[in-house]
Design goal:
Elements (H helix, E strand, L loop, with lengths): L2 H7 L3 H10 L3 H7 L13 H9 L9 E3 L5 H14 L2 E5 L5 H15 L3 H5 L11 E5 L13 E7 L2 H7 L2 H27 L8 H8 L1 E9 L11 E4 L5 E6 L5 E4 L6 E3 L7 E5 L1 H6 L9 E3 L7 E9 L5 E2 L3 H4 L10 E2 H9 L15
Parallel strand pairs: 1-2
Antiparallel strand pairs: 2-10, 3-4, 4-5, 5-12, 6-11, 7-10, 7-12, 8-9, 8-11, 13-14
Helix pairs in contact: 2-3, 6-9, 8-9
């Protein structure tokens, strides 16, 4: 079918939903029809589109931290400082082999380049495991305006489960990426913990800080009217820590805690972007900040990113750590079951930092 017919065909919102969501074509399929105008349900509210215009007008930058510095106390201090003042930082020389990063990026492209019939085996309706989910936007049924992004979400339960259910084309690469990053994640959590009087990451703390892991493969295809929509809307993550591998295209923006400006996070080859999630903000009683961020849509390039969400176990109860309260701090959050917190987040559209209010006292 010629692309011009597609343009006419997508005038009806129901047809867009049918093609993108129900048939599993995603926005990648939509982009590849050659549409010249953004379908209405992707057009963001005016104030969100306004942000797109002002997003690069600042000279602030998130810290870039070299983890190979022989003075470990300096590294730890820089990380904790960034966690308090920015909620975001980049790390270089982090010990994860660069070839592992290249492999998982290549595997991400390979998954999204599969025929629609293949990818559709992993949609909510078809997936043989609730831990493997191919989808589009964030929460299409809750959103007034959709986001210009497709994703494959892989929740890790065990190597055997991943072996059985994760897609062959990216399974080994995603597992290796997750496993090879563990040492660095532990290190980051030890630094952040020590600064909160947590002497060591024992079994209990480990299950609280990093008890469950999810890897997402994200795909942001070329967009006909990038200034009218977003790749991802304003939100903070629900994780303890998010480890993000981005390609060289760029587009991630973070809201500065000191100025309120939106700051671009430029791709640094071989680096990870690390950010504090809501769970860590709650555990630290607000000392570490989870910060609003968003991703722009792009008019000229397809972009991918591969985040690892490091989370408490679903059944964990999260609240300010006893070690933090011991020094006389008043708790500002109540105890909540982590899975309840996550469920609340996914029930609604992206809405900035509002999720964390769910746990406020």
């Amino acid at each position: 079918m010629a692309p011009t017919l597609y343009t006419a065909r997508f005038a009806d919102p129901a047809e867009v939903t049918e093609f993108v969501v129900n048939k599993g074509n995603g926005v990648k399929g939509l982009s590849e029809t050659g549409i010249k105008a953004l379908p209405d349900q992707y057009i963001q509210p005016f104030e969100e589109r306004l942000i797109n215009k002002f997003v690069n007008e600042t000279d602030e930058a998130i810290p870039v931290i070299d983890m190979s510095n022989p003075d470990e106390s300096k590294v730890a201090e820089a990380i904790c400082d960034a966690a308090e003042k920015w909620g975001f930082f980049q790390v270089i020389n982090h010990g994860v082999p660069l070839e592992v990063l290249d492999n998982v990026k290549a595997a991400t492209h390979m998954f999204f380049n599969l025929p629609v019939e293949e990818k559709s085996r992993y949609t909510k309706e078809n997936s043989l495991s609730t831990n493997v989910r191919f989808g589009t936007s964030f929460s299409p049924r809750a959103e007034k305006a959709l986001e210009w992004k497709d994703y494959l979400s892989l929740f890790f339960v065990s190597e055997a489960e991943a072996e059985q259910f994760w897609p062959d084309v990216c399974k080994n690469e995603a597992l290796e990426y997750m496993n090879k990053s563990k040492t660095m994640v532990r290190k980051l959590l030890e630094y952040l913990g020590k600064n909160l009087n947590v002497k060591e990451l024992d079994k209990t703390k480990e299950s609280l800080f990093m008890g469950s892991v999810r890897v997402n493969l994200n795909y942001y295809p070329i967009c006909p009217n990038p200034d009218l929509t977003v790749g991802v809307g304003r939100h903070s993550d629900v994780s303890s820590l998010t480890i993000l591998l981005q390609d060289q295209i760029g587009g991630l923006h973070v809201r500065s805690l000191s100025s309120g400006n939106w700051v671009h996070v430029p791709p640094v080859p071989g680096s990870f972007v690390i950010n504090i999630g809501d769970a860590m903000q709650i555990l630290s009683n607000g000392r570490y900040k989870s910060v609003e961020h968003r991703v722009l849509a792009n008019g000229s390039n397809n972009r991918i990113s591969v985040p690892i969400f490091v989370n408490p176990k679903p059944e964990s109860v999260i609240g300010p750590l006893p070690e933090v309260i011991a020094n006389g701090d008043k708790p500002i959050y109540r105890d909540v079951v982590y899975s309840d917190y996550v469920r609340y987040f996914f029930k609604k559209a992206h809405d900035g930092k509002k999720t964390v209010d769910f746990a406020k006292i």
